[in-house]
């Protein structure tokens, strides 16, 4: 995607052939800063501290982390150390495990001297595959947006609500939930996006709004609790979110607050779609509510807000009384029955066990 006329991905290998470059997402939307990752430890820290974030990008970064580790020490022990360090970085997005398993599958059978090069090649493939997958998701999701168009009067926008950031910043490029939106916009459809701010880390207000602005897509940032009201008043045609893990039977784990949007959508007859690459499906899990580990993050994320002052200074202020306990659940699970469909690289699939297994038989059988 373009930032001020220059093409960027969210992660890449630098010109020296081994350092990993990534956009520091903690600094957006106020500053566009490139971070350089030079070790497996730095890659793990980047995931943990959310310098990079979003399920597919977490996976791509972990793959790069293994490559960085192999450059220094390509022994079996080092491979296992890298795996253990990276898998512990964040618990919920299954793409992390998927990417690490892919790296291990590629590297373990090789002799150590061949591993570093092979690791960079496989990490590069994982990134390229993610881009291709998102483009395919875009094409399949576009059909859903196009189907709404004939119901609109001239000049009326197609209103899409999204939660968190499932855009190009959360993937390697294009995004999952945003890919159909970008294609619709580029194809001349009049789309407008309701962007949930997504407290506590404000991925919607800070990242999705930033992306959409740079792409010229009409959008409005709303407080997290606004979606239900908009749906009651016919102001949302379609919801598209991303996801961090989809179970074998189609339950969807995504950023905290997604479930409430799905409930509101269900109550108001608004289609609720989830866009995902197949590495986000965890065929080993059948009950999302009980089996998916939900990350709990630090209290400060809820108790404070960070922003830019009128004078241009970045400041963090406390918004909760000193001493008030705070809980910070980062994800929730939307049961499959509330999901209208899953937009995947192989088409729009019913959020249901047989349909998912039929769409991805090679993944379903191997787990
Ligand atoms: O905590 P984050 O910012 O990593 O959470 C990101 C999300 O919940 C995204 O919606 C999800 O990873 C899908 S990204 C294509």
TrEMBL record:
Cytoplasm is among the record's keywords: yes
Keywords recorded for this protein, A-Z: Amino-acid biosynthesis, Cytoplasm, Isomerase, Methionine biosynthesis
Active site: 244 (proton donor)
Enzyme class per UniProt: isomerase
GO terms, biological process: L-methionine salvage from methylthioadenosine
Pathway in which the depicted protein is active: Amino-acid biosynthesis; L-methionine biosynthesis via salvage pathway; L-methionine from S-methyl-5-thio-alpha-D-ribose 1-phosphate: step 1/6
EC number: 5.3.1.23
Reaction(s) the record says it catalyses: 5-(methylsulfanyl)-alpha-D-ribose 1-phosphate = 5-(methylsulfanyl)-D-ribulose 1-phosphate
Site entry: Transition state stabilizer: 164
Record InterPro entries: IF-2B-related, IF-M1Pi, IF_2B-like_C, Initiation_fac_2B_a/b/d, M1Pi_N, NagB/RpiA_transferase-like
GO molecular function, a single term: S-methyl-5-thioribose-1-phosphate isomerase activity
Cytoplasm in keyword set: yes
Binding site for substrate: 53-55, 90, 203, 254-255
Protein family: Belongs to the EIF-2B alpha/beta/delta subunits family. MtnA subfamily.
Protein function: Catalyzes the interconversion of methylthioribose-1-phosphate (MTR-1-P) into methylthioribulose-1-phosphate (MTRu-1-P).
Protein name: Methylthioribose-1-phosphate isomerase
Source species: Bradyrhizobium erythrophlei
């Amino acid at each position: 995607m373009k930032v001020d006329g220059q093409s960027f991905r969210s992660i890449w290998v630098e010109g020296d052939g081994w350092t990993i470059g990534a956009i520091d997402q903690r600094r957006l939307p106020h500053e566009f800063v490139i971070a350089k990752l030079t070790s497996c430890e730095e890659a793990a820290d980047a995931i943990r501290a959310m310098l990079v974030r979003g399920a597919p990008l977490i996976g791509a970064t972990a793959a790069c982390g293994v490559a960085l580790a192999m450059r220094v020490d390509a022994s079996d022990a080092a491979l296992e150390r890298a795996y253990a360090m990276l898998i512990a970085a964040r618990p919920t997005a299954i793409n992390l495990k998927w990417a690490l398993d892919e790296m291990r599958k590629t590297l373990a059978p090789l002799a150590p001297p061949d591993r570093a090069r092979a690791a960079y090649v496989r990490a590069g493939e994982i990134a390229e595959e993610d881009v291709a997958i998102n483009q395919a998701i875009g094409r399949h999701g576009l059909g859903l947006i196009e189907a709404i168009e004939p119901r609109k009067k001239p000049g009326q926008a197609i209103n899409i609500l999204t939660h968190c950031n499932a855009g190009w910043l959360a993937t390697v490029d294009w995004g999952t939930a945003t890919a159909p939106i970008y294609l619709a916009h580029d194809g001349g459809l009049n789309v407008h996006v309701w962007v949930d701010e997504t407290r506590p880390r404000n991925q919607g207000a800070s990242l999705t709004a930033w992306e959409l602005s740079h792409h010229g897509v009409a959008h409005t940032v709303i407080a997290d609790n606004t979606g239900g009201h908009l749906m009651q008043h016919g102001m949302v045609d379609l919801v598209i979110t991303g996801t961090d893990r989809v179970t074998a039977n189609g339950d969807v784990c995504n950023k905290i607050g997604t479930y409430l949007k799905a409930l509101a959508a269900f109550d108001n007859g608004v289609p609720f779609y989830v866009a995902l690459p197949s590495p986000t499906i965890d065929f080993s899990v059948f009950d999302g509510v009980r089996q998916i580990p939900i990350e709990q993050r630090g209290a400060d994320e809820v108790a404070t807000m960070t922003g830019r002052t009128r004078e241009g200074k970045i400041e963090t202020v406390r918004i909760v009384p000193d001493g008030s306990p705070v809980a910070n659940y980062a994800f929730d699970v939307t049961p499959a029955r509330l999901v209208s469909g899953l937009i995947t690289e192989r088409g729009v699939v019913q959020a249901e066990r047989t349909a998912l297994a039929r769409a991805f038989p090679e993944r379903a059988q191997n787990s």
